[in-house]
Amino acid sequence: MLSRRNALKVAAGTVPALALGTLPARAASAPVTGVVPASLAVLDNVVKTYIAERTIDCAQLAVVKNGKLVLARGYGSYTSTATIGGQPVPSLVQPTSLFRIASLSKHITSAAILRLVQDGKLSLSAPVTTLLGLSTSGDTRLKDVTVLRLMQHLGGWDRNVSGDQLWLDHTISAVLDAPLPISHADIIEYATARPLDFAPGSKMIYSNYGYLLLGRIIEKVSGMSYEAYVKQKLLTPVGISRMMLGGSLRSEAPPSEVPYYSQYTNKTVLDGSGIVVPYPYGGFNMPNQDANGGWLASAVDLVKFAGVFDAAGPVLNSASIATMTAKPEIGISADGSWYGCGWYVRQVTGHLNTWHSGSMPGTYTYLARLQNGITYAALFNRREETGTLDYDVLSTRMNEAWSKVTTWPTTDLYSQYF
């Protein structure tokens, strides 16, 4: 990412902007915005160290304690898609800046499904074949794929065997003789014609495609677009207005959305030109990711929405919340955790911890609801790639940091951001 000084030079037209998606040089230290009480400096320092080690240019951290937002931080700077006098505008990452959140979209989609169930419009036991009119000619076992099995990744698709259908654009285009960009309908046609990789309900294998189907079920049952339904029934009732589905290209980004960087390129999936593009911008189809990984949000948005699962409220009732974290039919894994509906879950003394990470080219995200009333979200504009340090150490470092906090603030920062 550009340093603040060079970003100002770009705005003034004195130096060229970097090509989107390429890995830039990093400033010595990232500028920061937002509020970090002195007693929580240890948490702030975890992220500062983490991004410095990995040369991450844009990041956020938000922390909630017992329902109050106690820390909201933005790290870094970027060149906005907004312009002044035809020149790009340098911007600091704010606590409200938008990031692609990748698979942190899954608990949002699961909540939307459960809201439909709660309102009496959908059954968790309904088969996807009936709801979406899918043929079982490719595999008769498809009739055994229910809504609940889709949410719990029990649907029968194994991306290590047959590939991740959300990332097979060129293959699907060629097989169906369908022009790029392919659509949800193309992906479903391709997948439905092929046999499942295992019997539905027999094991848990993470499936982005299962969540694509859930998005289509939400649209079919509600009569609304997936995005409109989520905004109306889930986000607006709790005062969240910034979140939206993202686009594939930087030119489509709102001014508050950070850029994304990767060392990798890919042949564009947005048209048949065959041009090679930065992987985060046209190397995959962002709109097709909607229900499994397409949302833009800030860390403060994510921790606020996570409060929906703390107690019954205007979005979900207690029965729906219990379903979100219920053990699946296959039981729990060897480490004592399980996948509920859009959340990984583990029982600790007196509490269910729930968490999830998100990852796509140019994006790494993490969200956790922990014991002692702690919820936090951390968002980054790069992910682990060949030659980089491990990104998954974030949660371990944050878990170690909690024990070093001796005094928690009582001031609630939510009013500053909502």
Description:
Mean pLDDT is about 95; it is low at about 1-20. Strand 11 and strand 12 form a beta hairpin. The chain starts with a helix and ends with a helix. The chain has helices at about 5-10, 40-55, 105-120, 130, 145-150, 160, 170-175, 185-190, 210-220, 225-235, 290-295, 300-305, 320-325, 395-400, 415; strands at about 30-35, 60-65, 70-85, 85-90, 100, 245, 265, 275-280, 295, 335-340, 345-350, 350-360, 365-370, 375-380. The chain is about 30% helix and about 20% strand. The strands form three sheets. Strands 1, 2, 3, 4, 10, 11, 12, 13 and 14 form a nine-stranded antiparallel β-sheet that branches. The chain has a three-stranded antiparallel β-sheet with strand order 5-9-6. It contains 15 helices and 14 strands. The chain is an alpha+beta fold and about 425 residues long.
Number of helices: 15
Q: What sort of overall outline do the alpha carbons produce when their principal axes are compared?
A: globular
Compute the CA-based radius of gyration: 21 Å
Low-confidence stretches: 1-19
Span between termini: 28 Å
Mean pLDDT across residues: 94
Number of strands: 14
Order of helices and strands: HEHEEEEHHHHHHHHEEEHEHHEEEEEHH
Helix content: 25-40%
Largest sheet: 9 strands, antiparallel
| Helix-strand makeup class | alpha+beta
Strand content: 15-25%
